């Protein structure tokens, strides 16, 4: 279960909950709210793929449906790759509206982190958005996080050198058998 808080100067803060489950047979399901659009929920399904030759690489193709302010579908992948103390994570997805082609977009959240010690990590993050008919928008950032038992608490600062910088705080809880 993940809970993110987005805030930027002079704007309203946004709460973005994300709950997911992976079965022992690697089936994946996920529920998100305010992720693709404000006042929009999404439900995604997929199955994790592991590779015998690349044991540190995991791909989870997902497809989902969105309902609320934006009604449509989504297709994407969750990619995780670890090497020594480095972790690369990327979640690109294409979102399409059932009603208006101009609401379609490609979005990607990526991060590269380094495990400093058993309870802290830091790295770089990047958000990319490509709205139908518009230019790509890249928003680079920095991140740091702490692990306390089953809790993971990351904090991100996107566009840190600009006057439009924004922050994301996560409070994530893991339950594993």
Helices and strands, with pairings:
Layout: E1 2-8, E2 14-22, E3 27-33, E4 40-47, E5 49-50, E6 57-68, E7 72-83, E8 86-97, E9 105-117, E10 120-131, E11 136-148, E12 151-158, E13 166-173
The unreliable regions are none
Largest sheet: 12 strands, antiparallel, barrel
Number of strands: 13
What general form does the structure show? globular
State the end-to-end distance: 15 Å
Count helical runs.
Answer: 0
- Report the structural category: mainly beta
Percent in helix: under 10%
User: Strand order across the biggest sheet?
Assistant: 1-2-3-4-6-7-8-9-10-11-12-13
Rounded mean pLDDT score: 93
Report the portion of residues in β strands: over 45%
Order of helices and strands: EEEEEEEEEEEEE
Radius of gyration: 16 Å
Main features:
177 residues
Structure in words:
- The chain has 177 residues and is mainly β.
- The chain contains no helices and 13 strands.
- The chain has a twelve-stranded antiparallel beta barrel.
- A hairpin with a 2-residue loop joins strand 11 (136-148) and strand 12 (151-158).
- It starts with a strand and ends with a strand.
- The mean pLDDT is 93.
Characterize this entry briefly.
By secondary structure, the protein is mainly β. 0% of the residues lie in helices and 69% in strands.
């Amino acid at each position: 279960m993940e809970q993110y808080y987005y805030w930027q100067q002079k704007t309203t803060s946004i709460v973005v909950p994300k709950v997911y489950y992976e079965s022992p047979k690697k089936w994946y399901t996920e529920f998100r709210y305010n992720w693709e659009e404000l006042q929009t929920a999404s439900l995604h399904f997929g199955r994790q793929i592991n590779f015998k030759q690349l044991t540190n690489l995991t791909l989870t193709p997902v497809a989902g449906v969105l309902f609320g302010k934006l009604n449509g579908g989504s297709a994407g992948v969750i990619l995780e790759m670890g090497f020594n103390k480095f972790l690369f994570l990327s979640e690109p997805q294409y979102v399409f509206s059932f009603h208006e082609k101009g609401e379609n977009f490609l979005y990607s959240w990526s991060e590269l982190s380094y495990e400093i010690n058993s309870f802290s990590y830091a790295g770089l993050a990047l958000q990319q958005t490509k709205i139908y008919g518009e230019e790509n928008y890249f928003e680079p950032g920095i991140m740091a996080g702490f692990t306390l038992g089953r809790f993971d608490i990351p904090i991100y600062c996107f566009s840190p050198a600009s006057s439009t910088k924004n922050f994301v705080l996560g409070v994530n809880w893991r339950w594993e058998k």
